[in-house]
Structures are given as C-alpha cells and as structure tokens.
C-alpha cells in the first residue's frame, strides 16, 4: 500500500479563528450596548444609526453569522482535513470562502445601521447580500464535498455527516426564505405575504438555530470533545440515531414560534408535537457528549478545555429541554413575546455556542502554534467569569419574563386589567434589565481575557502554516458488503442526497397545504392594500426596526383583546403584508390595533419624545423622522413590485399614486394643525402616522364583513 | 402569486397521519440497523478522530468497558 505525503492547511484555520475572535468581541459589544439602551435609551447617542431597532439585527447577525459562523468554518476546516486525511479540496476556494464571508459581514455592518433591512429575523440582509451569501455558501459546499471525494479515509466520521447536513439545509433554508422582489438596489419585498411569510420565516428562523447553531457544533463536539478527553465518543450507535432523528425532526418544529397566532391550527399542532419529540435526539446527543468523559472526569477539574466543553454540552441539554417545554401551548402563552425567550436563546448562544468555541480555541491554538497555553490561570478566570456571566444574564430575564407576562394577564376583581398601562409592566422589570447587562459585561470581560491569553500563546510559539502528514492512498477497489449505513458512509454524494430528502419532507408537509389550500387563509372583504403613504410609512417602520420591540399579533386571549381593543388578529388581515411584521418580542405594546386609538398629534409628540406622552417610557426619540422627507420617486417602483407579488393595485396606479399620497399627507397635516402642530406634508413622520393609524382598522370598519 | 388554490381539502387529517407514519417507519428502520452493526466497525469509526495524529493507534476500548 502506497503511503502518501501531504500537508494540512492550517493557515485558513488561523484566519477563520482571527475572524471569530474579532467579530465575537464586536458582536458581544453591540449586544451589551443595546442591553444598556433598554434602561438608558440615550445611549443610542441620538443617532439613527445606533438606535436599538437598527443595532439589534446587527447584534444577532454578528453573533450568529460572524462569531459562530467563522468558528464553525475554523473547526470544520481543521477537523475535516484530519478526519479525511487530506488537504482541503482547493486552496483558492478556501480563500474565496474566507474573504467572501468577511465581505458579507462587512456589508452587514454597513447596511444594517443604515436601516437597509428586510425585517425578517436572522435574514435581515437585503437581496444583493443574499445573493452573495448563496454564492459563498456554494463555494464552501464545493470545497467540502470536493475534500470528501478526494479523501484517504474510506468512512466518513459522524462529525462529517453533521457538516454535510449543515451545508445542505442552510442552502435550502436561505434560498427559500430569501425569495423577494427587488424594488431598488437595497430594498425588496418578500415574495410571500402574511401567514405564508410567517410560516416560511419561522421554518427558516427555527432551522437557522438548528442547522447553523446546532448541527455544525454537534459535529465539532463529536470531533473536539473526544480529542480533548483523549477517548473515543461514548456511543457511535447513539450518534447514528442522534444524527438521523435530529435532522429529520428538527425541520418540522418551526411553527412553535407562531403558537396562538393566525397560523392555521393544524400547523401549530404539528410544530408542537415535533418540538416535544426533539427532546429525545437532543438529549441523546448531549448524553453522548457527556458520557464521552467517562473515566476522565478528574481531568475536568484540571483542564480548562474540558471545563468549557462540559458547560457547553450541559447548556445544550438545558436549552434543548427548555425549547420543547416552551413549545407547549400553555407554557408558550406565558413565555412568548417576553424576556424568557431572550434568556432561552442566550443559554444556547452564550453557553452552548460560546463555550464550545472557547474550549475549541484553547485546544487548537497551542497545537497549531506548537506550544502550551500561555496561562491556565487566565483561562480558568475566563471560565468562571463566563459561567457567572451566563447565570447573571439569564436568571434576571427569567424573572422579568414571567413577571411581565403575569402582569399582562392580571385581572382585578371587577374584571378589568390590573395593569392597563403597558408601560407599568416595563418599568417593573427595568432592574432586571440592568442585572442582565452586568451578566453580559462579565461574559465580555472573559472573552477579552481569552483574546489576550490566546495572543500571548501564539506569540510564544511558532505557527505551522502547513502541517505535514501521511496516510495510505484510498484503494480504488470496490468494497462489497457491510451494512447499509457503512455503505452510505463510503458514498458521500448519495449520503448528501439522503440528507436532503430527510430535511425536505418536514418542510413540504408543513408548507404545501398552507400555500395551496385557500381555506387556510380566509379572505376578509374589507381588507384593502395599503395606500401609497401608508406603504412609505410601513417601509420606515421596517427601516427603524420597530418590529424588534413591537408585535403586530393580538393573540386570542381575553387579556389581549381587552388590552388592545376588540378583535384578535385574523389571518385574512395580513394578505397584503409583504413582509409580515408580527414580531417576536414585546418590549413595547402590540401595535396591530393601534390605528385610531390615539390622535395624530399624540403620535407626533410620541415619536418626537416618547416620554411626553408616556412618562418613563424606554422607547428612544425619533427626531430624524421630522427632518427627513419621503422619497416620492420610489412610490411607483414600490407599487409595481407589490403588484408583481400579488397585491391588487390597478394597472397604471403607480403613475397616479403620488397624487393620492400627497392628498392623504395633507389630510394628516391638516389634522395636526388643529392641535397647533405645523409640519411639512412630505416629512417621514407623516407617513409613519398614516401607517400606524391604518393598522388593524380594516376589520374595525365593518366587523360583519368577516367571511 | 398562488392564484390556483384548492378550495378545500376534505381530508386534511391525512397529513399528520402521513407524517407520523413516515417518521415511525424511518425510526424503526434506523433502530434495526443500529442493532445490527458489528462491534469492529463501531470501534473503527470511534477511533477516527483519535487516530488522525499520523497513524497512532488506540485501543482503550477494553479499558473503557470496565468503567
């Protein structure tokens, strides 16, 4: 048997690690800033670019795609070469992947603060960047599959299966959810509307968690945990069951983000059932990780790498038990829209992703630089700051979430809401927001200490850009026999196709009926498309990220119909909403029935300084809406684009739309002048008032029009 | 866009039953397979990440069995 010499590419891993650390610090810093804005709104510096609504998507995108994404690529590029005993398929592709991904991140850092956003969570980036993501993702895929094809190890280890599943599923999710019709270079409308848009978005959003934050990291766990513990994974059989049942079940669970919304009930139930079932594979994976440490628990006391990994896997177990519990409708009724969910995702992000990354980096860097860790003591300090940080972050938010939710639902003896003013339920939990930011600060300090420690480690060693290795060539001869899974492990392309089938079944079963059955979205005769001015207002609402703090979904609870006035939200009310704006968090009240509730003047004052109308409000002022003008040149393009996705504007309406816009704007400024406020009819504030006053009024006009 | 809706689906209940059946069959098949894997193959696969440091072989399976 011929022994072949080759070199592992460590340089690409090094670059991805550097990007991981830099963007990790940036992402967490932005997170800390917006956490503090919740009790000190003036920390937005009075600038539109640094307001909460625009920075929140920057924080989530930076942490998910820049911090966790780069770490995933670093780990994949390191482990894959070694598991397959070959260099990556093509160095040029590796570098296109690296620089392409960093350019996408830079594009996000520029566009999101500018307010260029689709508003769909974790898919906020506008269409040109969506296309770039698709291309770079394909480059990553070609490089990965190419590496598998030129391997010197016949069988693909379980980590590789998880990488394949990550590649295939993220590609499908990203493409389907990014169907949008461009209006301008940086503005588009979702192809889908209302209920359908919501279903597609949360099928994507949930599985972004599953296949970007979970499956690649399970792959990393299956590689780096045995390496760090120096013993094989506890059960390979369990890993097979873990893999197939996890990827098969995960894809179904998306609708649990839409419980008690206008999504058809059968789809909600499907989401609940599969979410509960997810406990089994998730805990199978967690136990497989923890049990790998059998007989090595004494080393967990000594080794910072193992410490980080044990807490990471434990956090994974906690988050994947909590997730299914939150999917039970009665629990969801309390937790949804509150800070409980924020706590939940941060146990996952800080605990599972963050700590696994830290453990991996503390293990990788001494090896790649041929040295020992600079300071074990600093690593231990990082560990305790990080662990304490997670606890101090999460606990106050659990208290805040439950407290606020119970206050929302509290009725007094006379049958009225005990806290009719939403703001009371916010000011109640502000101390919790303060404590949460201290937790975040501790975690961030830990990350800075790690950065110092890793730089010092690298400085004392010598980096090996190309690490020599040798392995026998893979024989070409046909191997017959073995069980079917061991056959599949030898056939990567076939394996990839099977993964694709497994993840498509769930998506198809959920989505096809919602798209094809008319009765799933009952039409309401009185629901009309937005007027041109309202459309501009809606786009400003999207630009400012209002959806980050305000839902537009009155759930069918007495406590909500009472608070928000009348009807709960119906599916038919959203048929012209491209994209849907239901939101996922209520830091402020729901806005779906805000139309007609207050005067134009109230909204004017409130946007100028929320504390005028609502003393103690933590909403920031929006002074720029009073200075900037509506861009009427874009009206025609918006109308035409929306008609193409099915909104029934008459042919040629785009030519006269601005007349209607100006007429409606003058009506609003006339209304304002009655209250002694004079404003230009083309100021953005006029458009946002028009939109807010329209919200939810379609079925107030004539409740009997409900078909 | 989706102009050609089915007006109704009378047997929408078939969907969850199909879903459950697909999953059940899939899972049973998986379990049967896993039970039939040979021990040698399991050990070989388990050692893949550990054996990558230029061919060092590990045989701690027997030791681990006693834990």
How would you characterize the overall build of this protein?
The complex is a heterodimer of chains A (707) and B (67). Chain A is mostly helical and 707 residues long. Chain A folds into two domains: 3-468 and 479-510, Cytochrome c oxidase-like, subunit I domain (Cytochrome C Oxidase, Chain A); 532-705, Cytochrome c-like domain (Cytochrome Bc1 Complex, Chain D, domain 2, Orthogonal Bundle), CATH 1.10.760.10. Chain A has 27 helices and four strands. In chain A, the strands form two sheets. Chain A has a two-stranded antiparallel sheet with strand order 1-4. In chain A, a hairpin with a 2-residue loop joins strand 2 and strand 3. In chain A, helix 25 packs across helix 26 (684-694). The model of chain A is unreliable at 702-707 (pLDDT under 50). Chain B is mainly alpha-helical and 67 residues long. Chain B starts with 13 loop residues before the first helix and ends with a helix. Chain B has three helices and no strands. The radius of gyration of chain B is 23 Å and the shape is rod-shaped. Chain B is 55% helix and 0% strand. Classes of the chains: A mainly alpha (707), B mainly alpha (67). Chains A and B meet through helix 2, helix 6, helix 7, helix 8 and strand 4 of A and helix 1, helix 2 and helix 3 of B.
């Amino acid at each position: 048997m011929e022994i072949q010499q080759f070199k592992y590419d460590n340089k690409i891993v090094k670059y991805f690690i550097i990007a991981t650390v830099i963007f990790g610090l940036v992402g967490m810093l932005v997170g800390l800033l917006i956490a503090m804005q919740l009790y000190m709104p003036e920390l937005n510096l009075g600038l539109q670019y640094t307001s909460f609504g625009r920075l929140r998507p920057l924080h989530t995108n930076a942490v998910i795609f820049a911090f966790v994404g780069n770490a995933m690529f670093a780990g994949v590029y390191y482990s894959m070469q070694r598991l397959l005993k070959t260099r990556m398929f093509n160095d040029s592709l590796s570098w296109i992947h690296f620089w392409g991904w960093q350019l996408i991140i830079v594009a996000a850092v520029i566009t999101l603060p500018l307010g260029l956003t689709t508003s769909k969570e974790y898919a906020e980036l506008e269409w040109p960047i969506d296309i770039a993501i698709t291309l770079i993702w394909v480059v990553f895929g070609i490089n990965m599959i190419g590496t598998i094809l030129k391997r010197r190890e016949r069988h693909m280890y379980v980590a590789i299966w998880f990488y394949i599943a990550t590649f295939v599923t993220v590609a499908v999710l990203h493409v389907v959810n990014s169907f949008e019709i461009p209006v301008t270079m940086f503005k588009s409308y979702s192809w889908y509307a209302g209920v359908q848009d919501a279903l597609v978005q949360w099928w994507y959003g949930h599985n972004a968690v599953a296949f970007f934050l979970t499956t690649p990291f399970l792959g990393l766990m299956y590689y780096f945990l045995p390496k760090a513990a120096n013993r094989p994974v506890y059960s390979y059989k369990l890993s097979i069951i873990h893999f197939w049942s996890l990827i098969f079940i995960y894809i179904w669970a998306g609708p649990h983000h839409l419980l008690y919304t206008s999504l058809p009930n059968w789809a909600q139930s499907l989401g609940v059932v599969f979410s509960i079932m997810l406990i089994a594979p998730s805990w199978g994976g967690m136990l497989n990780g923890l049990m790998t440490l059998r007989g090595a628990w004494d080393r967990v006391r000594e080794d910072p790498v193992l410490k980080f990994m044990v807490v990471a896997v434990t956090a994974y177990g906690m988050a994947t038990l909590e997730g299914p519990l939150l999917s039970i409708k009665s629990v969801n009724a309390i937790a949804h829209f509150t800070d409980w969910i924020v706590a939940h995702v941060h146990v996952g992000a800080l605990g599972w992703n963050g700590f696994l990354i830290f453990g991996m980096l503390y293990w990788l860097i001494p090896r790649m630089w041929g040295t020992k860790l600079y300071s074990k003591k600093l690593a231990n300090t990082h560990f305790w700051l990080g662990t304490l940080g997670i606890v101090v972050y999460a606990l106050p938010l659990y208290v805040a979430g439950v407290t606020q939710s119970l206050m929302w639902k509290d009725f007094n003896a006379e049958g009225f809401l005990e806290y009719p003013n939403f703001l009371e339920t916010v000011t109640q939990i502000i101390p919790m927001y303060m404590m949460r930011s201290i937790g975040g600060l501790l975690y961030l300090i830990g990350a800075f200490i790690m950065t110092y420690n890793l730089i010092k480690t690298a400085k004392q060693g010598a980096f090996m850009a190309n690490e020599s290795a040798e392995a026998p060539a893979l024989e070409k001869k046909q191997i017959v026999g073995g069980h079917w899974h061991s056959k599949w492990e030898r056939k990567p392309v076939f394996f990839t196709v099977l993964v694709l089938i497994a993840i498509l079944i769930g998506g198809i079963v959920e989505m096809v009926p919602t798209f094809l059955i008319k009765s799933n979205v009952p039409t309401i005769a009185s629901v009309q498309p937005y007027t041109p001015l309202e459309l501009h207002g809606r786009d400003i609402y999207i630009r400012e990220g209002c959806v980050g703090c305000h839902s537009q979904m009155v759930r069918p609870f007495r406590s909500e119909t009472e608070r928000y006035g009348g009807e709960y939200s119906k599916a038919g009310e959203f048929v012209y909403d491209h994209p849907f704006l239901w939101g996922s968090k209520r830091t402020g009240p729901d806005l779906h029935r805000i139309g007609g509730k207050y005067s134009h003047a109230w909204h004017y004052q409130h946007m100028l300084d929320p504390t005028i109308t609502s003393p103690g409000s933590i909403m920031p002022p929006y002074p720029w809406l009073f200075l900037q003008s509506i861009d009427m040149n874009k009206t025609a393009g918006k109308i035409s684009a929306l008609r193409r996705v099915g909104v029934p504007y008459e042919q040629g309406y785009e030519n006269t739309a601005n007349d209607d816009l100006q007429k409606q704007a003058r009506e609003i400024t006339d209304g304002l002048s009655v209250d002694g406020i004079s404003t230009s009819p083309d100021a953005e504030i006029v458009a946002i008032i028009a939109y807010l006053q329209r919200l939810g009024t379609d079925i107030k006009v004539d409740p009997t029009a409900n078909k | 866009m989706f102009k050609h809706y089915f007006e109704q689906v009378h047997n929408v209940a078939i969907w969850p039953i199909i879903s459950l059946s697909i999953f059940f069959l899939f899972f049973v098949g998986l379990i049967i397979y896993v039970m039939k894997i040979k021990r040698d193959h399991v050990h070989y696969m388990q050692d893949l990440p550990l054996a990558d440091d230029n061919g060092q072989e590990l045989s701690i399976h027997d030791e681990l069995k006693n834990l």
